């Protein structure tokens, strides 16, 4: 089968024909319907995860059909449509036992310690799989584990309440355009912030208010008291995000598009406005299941900016780096 392989740390990628995977104990092999590109894939290619087990197959967002099941797998059978968590927890540590497996110390991450999903087939641990409900499209499922469910848990963690005003930066991007919809589905009023008039057109389909440009805090404050910012960009927008917040507001930091830039945080500003700056790692299995239900109910519509065949993987990377891109970029075989 064809796959996108990273041969070693900072050694680029190759499209290779590799043997089809076979399921081991507690594993299944799925036929990949769609996978999706993510900034983490670009960071992995740039070498930000040096302890990865190379060579590896890239990609950690997937939906597909169970093709074969290994020994000891009873929950899934061939023909089931599934998506996967981004990692495999041990399900036995103190965090896993309290439903916060995203903090598991022994977790194994797809496309880092385990092969990922940019391939025709993928070998997946059954314990990380989630069945995709009927009525949810492949596009609707593939955006859930890394994007929509991640935002869903972030809002819960930030103490979101229906009626809160939520501001989303990078609002047309793969995370932003779905973050708007998750917040709306939970009852928020949403301000989308984007960089160009062209992208504002897409954002305005989903957000209640759209602000275009780099200096957005004054306009945001005129709209109302912003309780939460979902920050998808990083150092270049964070200062304005902090300024946009009401007293006691929270930033959920998700994006870090340029990891080389250091942000100078004025602590006095945080203290005097009683602000919280929260890191956010991702979703638990329960969040994925609950978010798939929101997709099923039609409250979240996948926004896809392109679908690229594995052979043309380079085009997908170019699209990810294109400033005019919107939505998620999918990879299929
Ligand atoms: Zn991702
Ligand atoms: Zn654990």
Automatic annotation (TrEMBL):
Q: Which UniProt keywords apply?
A: Metal-binding, Oxidoreductase, Zinc
Q: What is its EC number?
A: 1.3.1.84
Q: Name one Pfam family in it.
A: ADH_N
State any single GO MF term.
alcohol dehydrogenase (NAD+) activity
Q: Does the keyword Zinc apply?
A: yes
CDD domains, A to Z? Zn_ADH5 (cd08259)
Domain Enoyl reductase (ER): from-to ranges:
8-331
What PROSITE patterns is this protein classified in? ADH_ZINC, QOR_ZETA_CRYSTAL
By its UniProt entry, which SUPFAM superfamilies does this protein fall under?
GroES-like, NAD(P)-binding Rossmann-fold domains
Quick one: a GO cellular component term? cytoplasm
Cofactors named for this entry: Zn(2+)
Endpoints of the signal sequence: none
Family according to the record:
Belongs to the zinc-containing alcohol dehydrogenase family.
Q: What is this protein called?
A: Acryloyl-coenzyme A reductase
